[in-house]
Amino acid sequence: MKIWVNNALVNDADAYLDSSGWPQDSGLFETMRTEGGRVQLLARHMRRVITRAKILEIPIPHEDVIFDAVEGLLENEPHEIGRLRFTFSKDRFIATHQGYLDQSESFRVATHSVSDHEPGRRDKSYPYTSNLQLLENAVKSGFDELIVIGGDGRVAEGATSNYAFRVDGQWVTPPMSAGLLPGVIRALAVEECGVAVRDVQREDLGRCDASIIMSSLKIARPISAVDTRSLIIDSDVELICSKLRHLATTL
């Protein structure tokens, strides 16, 4: 598999990535969906990582290098639907493009309570081991994802996803102060789909009748159940998911 390292394509991915496809150092990363040779929401992803990289003093390559990496990978590692990942460390910029398979139309998620979820974190950083381990545990238990609930009872995020919940007829998503990353699709839901930002408590999950899961790869999918409780998938749910998918492919 060809990958991009700093300023050029290289053939020896194993020299730079571990068996799970991650660099062995630490830094920031962005994951984007590609469809038909087009990267979705690239500018928004770059704005997010540049903002945090300045604070953490992690160098970001010139935009010409980013565009060259995208062009080189899409041409040499083509996929109809793909996962484009950028990793940025103090010493190295790596980009990869691999195939991505959409999951089921609806998701079953489990709640997961933690006592030490970090409030107000802003960095999409790697190593990503703890998140991936949470996701693996959820899958082993028969779920597709999980909803993290902090020790204060505030709903946060999933292992790799954000959420919106319909509570008393209003779509809401937790604030970043609850301990979630500023998801790109979540931002579109707030800006374009009327989703309100407010605290979501554990008890709100028992009152919500519908929910969607959001991420750059999944875009937006309905949730059919939280733990053992079934949720509604009606025209309202389908409409917000459809609108977010349209925005992701056109902006």
TrEMBL record:
One of its GO terms (biological process) is carboxylic acid biosynthetic process. GO terms for molecular function: catalytic activity. Pfam families: Aminotran_4 (PF01063). InterPro entries: Aminotrans_IV, Aminotransferase-like, BCAT-like_C, BCAT-like_N, Class-IV_PLP-Dep_Aminotrnsfr. PANTHER family: AMINO-ACID AMINOTRANSFERASE, AMINODEOXYCHORISMATE LYASE. Belongs to the class-IV pyridoxal-phosphate-dependent aminotransferase family. This is Unannotated protein.
